[in-house]
Each structure stands twice: as structure tokens, then as C-alpha cells.
Amino acid sequence: MTTDQSDAPGGTGPAGDDRTTAEGGAADSTGTGAPVTGRTDPEQSGPGEPERAGATATGSPPADAAAGKPAGTTTGEPVTATAKPTAATTGGPAASPDGEPAGSTPTRPDPDRWEAFGPVPERQPTRLDRVRRRLGRFAGHEWTLAALGSLALAVLLTWPTLRYPLYTLPQDYWDPSLQSWQMAWSGHALLTDPAGLFQSNTFFPEPWSFAFSDMLLGYAPAGLIGTGPEAAVLRYNIVFVLAHALATFGAYALARQLGSGRVGAAVAGVSYTYAPWLLAQAGHLHIVSNGGIPLALAMLARGHGWSLRHGYRPERRRTGWAYAGWLVAAWQLSLGFGIGLPFAYLMAGVVLVAAVLWVARRPVFGARLLLADLIGGAVFAAVGALLSIPYFKVAELHPNAQRTIGDIAIYSPPVSGFFTAPGESRIWGSLHEGARAALPWPPEMTLLPGFVLYALALGGLFFSVWRLRHRLLLLAGVVVTMALAMGTRLFDGTFTYVPLFDHLPGWNGLRTPGRMMLWATLLLGLLAAGAVSAFGERVREIAAERPPYRPGPWLRLATLVPLLLVAVEGLNSTPHPVVPAQPAALRSVEGPLLVLPSSQNLDQPVMLWTTTKFQQVVNGGSGFTPDQLDRVRGLTLNFPDAASVQQLRDLGVRNVVLLRDQLAGTPWERVVDTPVHQLGIAREEAAGVVVFRL
């Protein structure tokens, strides 16, 4: 019987695959039915795969051929009469049942029956998976956790600032009202008349009135959002909380960059922000807005590859961080010179030291980093110079705005002030009531940075990750800044504060030397961070000496005790009074106008009330009282009378508003209802106020 080549043993089978035997011998391609060596086990075929031709053990013809059937057919199945076309019948190469040329590689691999037992192939991540991984890494990063922790702690330790943020202000509603107006005015001026920024709507008709106190100009972007007193109060409270968060984060970043451990850096951040003495400054946003100081120093140190613990490491230099540090420093300076001026002189000293080091050890600084310092330092100096121009104008126009040594002596604290807490301290406030009574001016003389901080800093002198010379330098910085904080109390300031007052430009504008305690607090925090970091490292060493080679829960908790104690000592009992409601008449009365009664404290809420229309008002409150406003307050004691009406008309005032709820015990209580038609002015009653139209 003659068979097609496609059915011959060892030829191209039904699946169209050319196979070899297990022994490596080639199948016969002559079509003569010659036996092949070796053995092919039918069970080795894949599921559903036809049995291979020529699979007998002895080399005899296949069973199908022996039974008189064509080779390759299955027993019990009929043989079709028509065979597949072959090369002999078509004149071309033989084709497989799949339509492929004979001898070609199959397009689909044979399925593997053991595939289900193999390892699952790794799934390639999708774009969404990559985004999720990046977000996860970002959320778990140290700096993300530090920022979120600083924010959460700020909300907690300034509570109840955000309880009623539209209606209350921390500590009192005098200076916070002024500063709420400052942020609102800067945003309004940038939107309407940037060139008139320093010619504010208050203290009419005085020029440069926006520079009568620290301007908080760096918060101007926040002033672009919202209008009116409620928006201004809400803005103030939010910025107040964020300022605390930034201070904690900045001091944490500085301590970490210098080489502290995480817990030690957290101690430095919390102690710097929530020191008990700062609770008395809750009404001074320009003082609690100090986070840019340590943050700028941290960025500059990182950009220069320098740390207190490891010294200079040129391979860690990053020019971008240096630029960022200078920009943050310039922003901090724009918040005010109250704490910005000492910072500016510190930065000048840093630049001087860096220049000397560059000349002496030129390989330490690269050319690009030097260029970054030159450009960044120029930007910082330019911001300081531009912001100082209005203040020099004010000093020229108002000689009474300049401070004297006598003014400094009024606010200079004694040594006992460094161990006395303000009344806003929840822990020490009531206990130190007697000590505060002995101080001439407690709000600026209660300078306790925290007894826990004192103890940790003292321990840091003997047990620390810092080198001994660095500890001594930090201690020297603490002593110097505390001596400056005493003003004229230490040897009359002859060797400390007075030389700075006499010779450093702008220093005579600083009224309260006690605010130098900010620098002492930061340095004490760094000393404490060194001690806490050394304690944490010792705990890990102890744990490594015995199984399970990691600190137990009690040891881990012990490393957090200093942080908890520092945070507890910063708890506050700061009052949050309700801001006086804006009289409805002030939403419509045109300026220039005068609101009576007028005084330093009463005028600051008036400034806040003008944030609806920003009409010009004679009223204003600041660090000093201009002579013009002082005269107006004196001549209007008899208002309404002919002399005061004429004086106000000459000044340009069009309307006078008397607040009925504040007239008790004042000269206007008796004359507010007196007829005024003989004076040629109109009198109108409004809700809670009397409006005189001049």
C-alpha cells in the first residue's frame, strides 16, 4: 500500500511539525517506513495533540499501518477518501492541516499541561500603579510626615483659635485687629494700586502710614482672598496657625540638617515654637511668624553641604537649596523688622564668614555655589533696602517715632524674667502670678523658655551628639543673646545692647529687647536636640546587644518622653475674645471720616472695619501716635462745636461717626443728642451710631 509522504513515519504529521526522537535520531524522510531509533512516548504529547507517527518500541510499522489503515489515523475513526494535497499533487510544498507549509514552525505553541503549577508571572505595573507608588512614597516620606505633624500640632496647641475663626482673635482684639487689617490692605493695594501700597487708608492724611508698624508684607498673597472684616479675621487665624506650623517645621529641618536624630529635631522644633514666653506674644503675629529663620538656615546649610555634626561635605552641595534658602530669608525679612533686623545682621555675619572661608579654603566652595550666594545675598539685601525706605521716611517725618535708651529701659527685663512664665501658660501661669507682679511690664518681661528645655540643654552640655567645641559655641550663643535680651538691665547695657543701639543702622527702632530671647530659645533647642539624639543612639546600642535586637516598647517610649514634656509645657490658656462687630454704617459712609471715641486701642478695630470699602479714616493704631492724630483727638473732645467742625473741615474730613456703645464716661455722652443745625452740619441716626455730615 502506498502512502503519502505526509503520513509516513517520521514525516510531516497531521499537526505539520517535524519531530526528532528522544535519542536525537532523525525521522526517515524517504517515506519508505524505515523504523527509527529510540522511543517516543505517546503520553508525552500535549493535551489534545495527536500521537506521533512511528512510535513503536521495536521499530515495526505503526499500529494503524499494520491494521491496514493509513498511518497517523486514529483507531475506530473512518479514513476519509480524499487526502490532503501534497507536493506531488499540487506541484508545491506540502501543506499542514492548518494551511501552513510543511516543515514550518507552528504559529501557536503547544499548551503546557504543567503551566498551572508554575510561578505566576510578575504583572507589569500600569501608569495608575506607578502613580500610586509615588504617592505612597511621598506620603511616607520623613518631610511629609514632619509637615503634617507640625500642622496637626499647630492646630492642637493653638486651640481654640480655629474653633470660631470668623469671630474671635487670639489674646485680644487690638493688635490682632491691626494685623488683620494689614494683610487685607496689602492684598487690596496689590489688586488696585500697587504704587500706593505705603499710602494706606488709615491715619488720614498722613503719608507712608502703612510703615507705621511692621507691615507683614510677606502675607500679601493671603490678602488677595476675600473682603470685609470677617474674611480678614478668618485670614488672620489661619495664618496664625500656619505660622506656628512653619516654625516647628523650620526648626525641625535645621536640627536634622545639622545632624540631629528625628526625636531630637522634634524637640528642637516644638520647644522653639511653643516656648512659654512666646505665649505672651500670641497677639503679635509678626513675632510668632518666625519659621522662616530656621528654615532658611537649614536650606542654606543643605545647599552648602554643611552640618554641625559632619562638617563640610563638598559632594553634598546643592546650588538649588542655596537659592531657596536666600529666597526664604528674604520672605522672612518682608514680614517685619521686629525680628527681621537681628536676622539680617546674622545673615550678614554668615556671608562675611563664608567669604573668609572661601578665600582661605577655596576648594570648599565651588564657583556655582559662590555665584548662588552672591545672587541670593543681593536679593536679600535688595529686599531689606527697599523695605527700609518707607521706615526712613517715617523716621524723617515723625521724630517721635524714634526710640531712646529710656524707652528701651522701660521694657528691659531682669534676670528673674528668664524663669517667669506669662499668664497664658497653662502649666506655669497661675504658679508664677506673684513673680509676674514684681515685673514692671510682664507682657515683655516673662521670658521663660521652659524648665524642661533648660534641663535638656544642660544635659546636652555633657552628653550629646555634638562635638565639645560646638556645644561650647551654642552655649556662648545662648549667653550672648540672653544678655542682649536684658537690654539695659545688665551693666546698663554699656557692653551689650547700647553699642548695637548706637552704631547699627535701624537697631534704635527696636523697642523690646526681650524678643532677642527667640535666638536663645533656638540655640537651647539645638543643645537639647543633641542630648536627645545621643540618648536615642544609646538606646539602639543597648537593644543591639541583646535579642530581639530592637528597642522594646518601654525603651521606645522613653525616647519620646522629652518631646512629650516639652509639648505639655507649651500648653496655653490664651483668651480668644470676640471681635467687636462692624457697625453697618461703616459699610456705606464715605470717607474721609473720623470715628469717635478715638484712642490707640479703640482705633485698631476701626481699621479692621474699613476692610469692606477701605475708605480713608483719620483713625489708626500703631507703635507710635503721629502728632496730627494726637491733635485731632484733643480738638474733638468738644465735638460737635464750631471750632472742632472747622478744624475737621480744614483737614478734609467729610463725616464723623459716633459709636453709642462706647460713649459711656466720655465727653460725647452729654452732647451726642445736642441739636447741630446752627453749625451747618447734618445729623443722622443709624443702627447704634450717630453720623454727622460735615
Protein architecture, described:
The protein is mainly alpha-helical and 694 residues long. The protein folds into 2 domains: 142-570, no CATH class; 584-693, no CATH class. It starts with 62 loop residues before the first helix and ends with a strand. It has a 4-stranded mixed beta sheet, with no helix packed on it. A hairpin with a 2-residue loop joins strand 5 (682-686) and strand 6. The protein contains 25 helices and 6 strands. It has helices spanning 63-66, 87-90, 127-139, 142-157, 175-192, 220-223, 228-258, 262-273, 285-288, 292-303, 319-334, 337-360, 367-397, 405-410, 433-437, 442-445, 451-460, 468-485, 497-503, 517-544, 553-569, 600-609, 627-635, 642-651, 668-671; strands at 306-307, 311-312, 593-596, 655-659, 682-686, 689-693. The chain is globular. Helices cover 46% and strands 3% of the residues.
Q: Tell me the major beta sheet.
A: 4 strands, mixed
- Share of helix among residues? 40-55%
What value does the Rg take, in angstroms?
A: 42 Å
Mean model confidence by pLDDT: 84
Q: How many structural domains does the protein architecture include? A: 2
Task: Flag low-confidence runs.
Answer: 1-100
Structural class: mainly alpha
Distance N to C terminus: 133 Å
How many strand segments? 6
Main sheet strand line-up: 3-4-6-5
- Beta-strand percentage? under 5%
Shape: globular
Instruction: Tally the helices.
Output: 25
